[in-house]
Amino acid sequence: MMSRFIIILFLLPLALLANDGKQLYTTYCSACHGADGRGPENNVNPPLAKSEWLLGKPDRAISAVLVGLAGPIEVAGKAYHLIMPPQGAVLNDEQLAAILTYVRTSWGNEEEAVSAEQVAEVRERLKDRKTPYGANELREKYPIPYERGWPRLENLISHVYHGKWELMPDFSKLEVASVEEEPRNLVDVAHAERDQEFGIVWTGDLVTDREGDYRALLDASDGAILYVNGKKQLEVEGIGPRGSERARTYRFRLLKGRHQFRLEYFNNQGKPGLSFQVSGPSGKQWLSESRLKIIPAAPAIPLRAEEGKSAVIYRNFIEGAGARAIGVGYEEGVNQAFSVTHMGPDVIWQGKFLDGGLHWTNRGQGNQKPSGTDVVQLLTKPAYAILADENSAWPQKDDERVRPQFGGYSLDEKGRPTFRYRIGEIRVTEAFEPLLSETERSLKRLITFKSSGSAPENLYLALASGPEIERSGERSGEGFILDAKVTLKSDAELVLRRLPESQVLVPLALKNGLTQLSIYYTWKKP
Amino acid sequence: MKTSLSLIISAILAQVQAQSPHYQTETIPLPEGEIVEVSAIALMPDKKVAIADRRGQIWIGSGLYEDDLSKVRWRSFAKGLHEPLGMYWKEGSLIVQQRTELTRLRDTNQDGQADDFSCLCDAWGASHDYHEYAFGSDPDVNGDTWAVLCLTGSAKTGADWRGWAVRIDQAGKMHPEVSGVRSPGGIGFNPQGDLFYTDNQGLWNGSSSLKWLKPGGFVGNPTGNVSAKKFGLPEPPQPQSGSRIQIERKKDPRLIPPAVVFPHGKVGQSPTAVVPDLTEGKFGPFAGQLLVGEQTHSEVQRVDLEMVNGFYQGAVFKFLKGYGSGVVPLRLAPDGSLFAGGTNRGWGSRGAQPFSLERTRWKGGVPFEIKTMRVTPSGFKLRFTQEVDAELAADPANYPMKAWTYIYQKSYGSPEVDQATPQVTAAKVSEDRLGVEITVKGWVQGHVHHLDAQALKSAEGKPLWHPDAYYTLNEIPFARSGGIE
Questions:
Q1: What are the backbone angles phi and psi of residue A477, rounded to the nearest 5°?
Q2: Are A361 and B345 in contact (CB < 8 Å)?
Q3: Containing H/E element for B262?
Q4: Does A340 contact B412 at a Cβ distance shorter than 8 Å?
Q5: ipTM value of the model?
Q6: pLDDT top residue among A110 and A490
Q7: What pLDDT, on the 0 to 100 scale, is given for residue B298?
C-alpha cells in the first residue's frame, strides 16, 4: 500500500511536467525532430525516439541542447551531419527540463525525468562555453550506457592481428599482435588501437535465456564473418563501407544456454567499423560498440617547456627515432629526437615540438609524429662504425667494436640536456644549444670525446645517412643541404659519399685527451 | 513486502559491514589542475613521499602522513620519463624503473628538481608496443633491482627478454633470472625477502595469480623462451597446451606453480602491486602478510603465504575496496599508512575516477576475519582474529568447500574445470578459540580450494567481514607423528 502511494506521488508532478513539455516540444523541436520524435520524413535530422543519446543520466542531452551539437553523428545506426543550434539562451531551466522530460519518456523512451536543478547545474558548468559539442566529445564526456539484456556475449576475448588484406585471411596462420579480454563483452573495433590494416578475431560465448528463433545482423567495413557453434553463419565479404547493401542478416534456431561464438573482422584502409546485432524471443541487442562509435582522434596536448626553462623532454615512441627516443623541444623553435639506440639526433625539425595526446590518452599505441615542420630524418642506422676505407659499406646494425652504451643526461639551469655515453674506453658527451638569428634558427651540437687509451683507427661518425644531400657551396666548409630543408655545417672536415646512399661522415682521429666537434643544423625561419 | 524490506535492511547492513569501521580510506589531494595517473610510489626521508605518473612526471609531496590531508603540498621533481612503473629512494637518489631503462635521478644542485638522469641499465629490448610494461622492484637483499618485462602485446616476443624477470646488479649488468612471464601488474617481496609478482589472466594463465620469482624458475608462459635460445641460455620448459599446471610441472620441475591463484571475477580481474605488511601491527592484525592491488575492481586483497615442500602456496582473502580509480601502485609506510595510487586509462575500473591517490589507515579494533588458512597433512588449520562461536565452529557442516582448477593452455584464460566438492568431516576448535583445525576428504592437489565460512560467527555473534578464502593447494605436507591421521 505504502509503495503504491509513493509511486502515485512521484507520477503526479511528472505527468504535469510532461504535459507542459509536449507543448514546448511541439513549438521548439518538432519541426526538425518530428511530432512523433521519429525525425522528419526526409531523414536529414536524427530521431529522438529510441535514440541511444538519451539513455542514462540526462547531462549528455542537457549539454547538447544548451550549447548545441555540430558535425557528424550516428544515431540509431544511421549517420547524420548537421548542426543542432544551441537553445540555452532561448529556453529557461524549467522549460528545458519539461522538454527533456517529455522526450525522455515518450515514443518508447523510458528514461527518468529531468529537473530544472539538473539543467541549472549543467548550465553553470557550461557558462563559458561558446562552441557547440561534437558527437565524439560529448560521448567521451558522457558515455552512453549499454543495456544488458538477452542474448548477450560473455567471456569475450579479442585477438588483434596486423596486416593488409582484401579478403578474410586465415588467422590461424598469422602471428597475433595482442590478446585481451573485452571487459564490457562488446565487440569493439577500437580495441585494435589502430585505424587501418588490422584484423580482430573475437571468441567467447553467445548466451541465450531461452530457446527460439534468432536473427543476426552484421555490417562491417571492411569484412566480417560470424561463426556460431563452429558453423559459419554470415559473411560481409571483401572491402567496402558500412551502412550499405553490404549488411547481411541470417535467421537460425538456438537452444537456451551457451553457444560458441567467433567473429572475424578485418579493415584494409579507410574508417573501421562493425555493427553486430542479435535479436531473439527476449529482444534485440546490439553486441557491438561500433554502432555509435566514431573513433575519436587523440586530443591535442601540446608539449612546451616550463616557465623559465628553454627545453622540454618527452621520452616515448617518436616517429623515426624508435622506442628509445628522447625528444627535446627548445622554446627557440628547434627540436630533436635523440636516439638512445644510435646515439645522436635521429630526427630534427623546426617549429612546434611534439604532442602528448597520442600516448597520454587511451593505451598510447603508435609513434608520435613531430608537430612542427621541415622534419629531416638524419639517421636510420648506427652513428658509429669502423670502416676499412672510405668506400666500405656502412653497417646496418651496431658494430660490436664500437657499440655505444648510453650513460644518461644532465640538465642545465634552462632544462637543456647534455647526453653522455661510452664507446669502449671513449667517453662522449653531446651538448645542444639553440641559436637564433633574424632569418635563421640553428641547433648547435657540441660533441666532446674523452679518450684515455688507444682509440680505434678508421672510426667514423655519420651525421646524415639517408636524406637527400646537396653541397651548399664549392667547399665542404660551406656545408650541406639535407632534404632541401636544413643546412648542415661543422668545424670538422666532413666527407660526402654516395654508395649510392648519400652520407655525410666525420672521420674521427681521436687523440689521447679531449677532442671536440661542433655541428650546426640550420633552418630558414618560415 | 516484508521480504523486500528485510532484503533492503540486510543489504544496508552488508554495506555497513563492508565499509569496515576498522579501516579508513581518505583521498590525498594531487597537484591542482594536473593529470597524475599514479604509477609508482616511493617513501623518502623527512616524511616526504614521491609519486611517479604514467605521463612520466615525478612529484614530491609533504604532509601525506598528517591527519589533515588538505595541507598536502606537491612540487614537481622531474618530467619527461617514459612510463615509470617502479621507484625507490636510495642514498640521496630516486631509482626509477622506466619502460626502457633503470635510471638514477639526482638533484645535484639542491634546487628541488632532478638535474641528473643516469642510465643504470637498458639491456632489455623494447619495440613500439604500448603493452611492453616494465615493473621494477625495490632493492633485494644484495641491493639489486628486478624488473618484470611484459610480452609484446601481452602475446608475443617483439624484442629481447620480453616475458622475463631480469635482475640488474649494482654494476648495471642485467641477469635474466626467471622466464615464463606474461603480463605483470606489480612486483614485490614477502617479509622473508623472496620475490613475487602478479600476472594477469591470459595466454597460458587460466586465471590471474601471484607468482614466485624463484631464480632459475619458469612461471608458465613459454612465449619468451626464444630469448634464451638466441642468447645461448638453457631453453626453459615447453609445456603442453590444454594440460594442467599440476601435470606439466611433474614433467619439468623448473615450472613453478602460481603461489596463489586469484579466481577470475571472484577475486578481482587484474592484480597489481605486491607489498608486505612489515608494520608489526600498525596496519591491523595481519602483520607479515602480503597486500595485493587490484586494478579492475579498485580493491586491495590480502594474501597469507606458507612454504610447503619447497613451494609457496596460500590463501587470498578480499580485504579493502572502493578505491577511487584502478589500484596500480601500493606502498605501506612503517607507520601503517597504506598509499594507493590509481589509474584507469586504457583499462576500465570500478572506481570511476580517471586517477587517484588515497591513504588507508587502520583505525584500531579488530575486524572478525580468517587471519590465516594453512595446510595440514589432512586438512587446513584456520586462525581467526577474534574468538569464534565454538558451537558453530565445531560443526563440520559449516565449512562448505568447492575446488577447481584451470586449463593450462596457449589460448586466453580458462573456465573453471575439474570441479570437486571436498568434504569437511571434522572441525576441532582450539582451546584459545582462535583456531579451528578442519579435516578434509576429497581435496585435490593443484586445485584452488574455496572455503565459504559465512556460517561462522565470532564469540560476540558477529559474522566474518570476508567469509571467503581461496587456497591454492600446490603441495600437501607429509604427515608427521602426532599429526591427525
A1: -60, -20
A2: yes
A3: strand B260-262
A4: no
A5: 0.93
A6: A490
A7: 93
Helices A116-125 & A59-67 angle (0-180, nearest 10): 60
Phi, psi of A416 (to 5 degrees): -85, 130
Classify A2-141 by CATH class: mainly alpha
Does residue A11 surpass a pLDDT of 80?
no
Domain ranges of chain B: 20-362, 370-472
Residue B317 grid coordinates: 582473502
Are A184 and B156 within 8 A, CB to CB?
no
Cβ–Cβ below 8 Å for A365 and B129: yes
The hierarchical CATH code for the domain B20-362 is 2.120.10.30
DSSP track, B42-106: EEETTTEEEEEETTS-EEEEE-TTSS-GGG-EEEEEE---S----EEEETTEEEEE-SS-EEEEE
Question: Higher-confidence residue: B9 or A109?
Answer: A109
Rg over alpha carbons for chain A, rounded to the nearest Å, is 31
Contact (CB<8Å) B348/A184: yes
Residues of chain A with CATH 1.10.760.10: 2-141
Burial class (CB in 10 A: 0-12, 13-18, 19+), B132: buried
**CA A296-A302-A307 angle, 5° bins:** 155
For residue range B45-84, list pLDDT tens digits in order: 999 999 999 999 999 999 999 999 999 999 999 999 999 9
Question: Which of B1, B128, B269 lies closest to A367 in CB terms?
Answer: B128
| Dist CA A303 CA A309 (whole Å) | 13
Q: Which CATH class is domain B370-472?
A: mainly beta
Does residue A364 belong to the interface with chain B, where contact is any CB pair within 8 Å?
A: yes
pLDDT recorded at residue A475: 67
A235-269 pLDDT, tens per residue? Answer: 999 998 887 678 888 999 999 999 999 999 999 98
B202–A179 CB contact, under 8 Å: yes
Q: Which of A181, A184, A314 sits opposite B80 (nearest CB)?
A: A314
Three-class secondary structure of residue B2 per DSSP: helix
Q: How confident is the model at residue B478 (pLDDT cuts 50, 70, 90)?
A: confident
Q: How far is it, in rounded angstroms, from Cα A395 to Cα A514?
A: 27
Domain with CATH 2.60.120.260 in chain A: 152-286
pLDDT attached to residue B22: 95
Report pLDDT digits (tens) over A392-432. 999 988 888 899 999 999 999 999 999 999 999 999 999 99
The CA distance from A351 to A372, in Å, is: 5
State chain A's mean pLDDT as an integer. 88
pLDDT digits (tens, 9 = 90+) for A488-503: 999 999 999 998 889 9
Question: Residues of B numbered 338-377 whose beta carbons fall under 8 angstroms of chain A's beta carbons: which are they?
Answer: 345-348
CB A113 within 8 A of CB A105: yes
The domain A152-286: what is its CATH number?
2.60.120.260
* Domain A311-524: top CATH class: mainly beta
pLDDT for the residue numbered A291: 45
A198 to chain B, closest Cα gap in Å = 14
Provide DSSP, A296-361.
PPPPP-B--PPTT-SEEEEEEEETTTEEEEEEEEETTSEEEEEETTTSSEEEEEES---BSHHHHS
Q: In angstroms, what separates the C-alpha of B34 from chain A's closest C-alpha?
A: 12
- DSSP lists the bridge partners of residue A202 as A158, A263
A324 Cα to chain B: minimum distance (Å) = 7
Cβ contact, residue pair A179, B155, below 8 Å: yes
Rounded CA separation A65/A132 (Å): 9
**Cβ of residue A322 closer than 8 Å to a chain B Cβ:** yes
| Among chain A residues, CA nearest to B127 | A323
Q: Are B412 and A157 in contact (CB < 8 Å)? A: yes
Which residue among A159, A178, A326 sits closest to B131, beta carbon to beta carbon? Answer: A178
**C-alpha cell at position B342:** 590509481
Closest chain A residue to the Cα of B154, Cα to Cα: A178
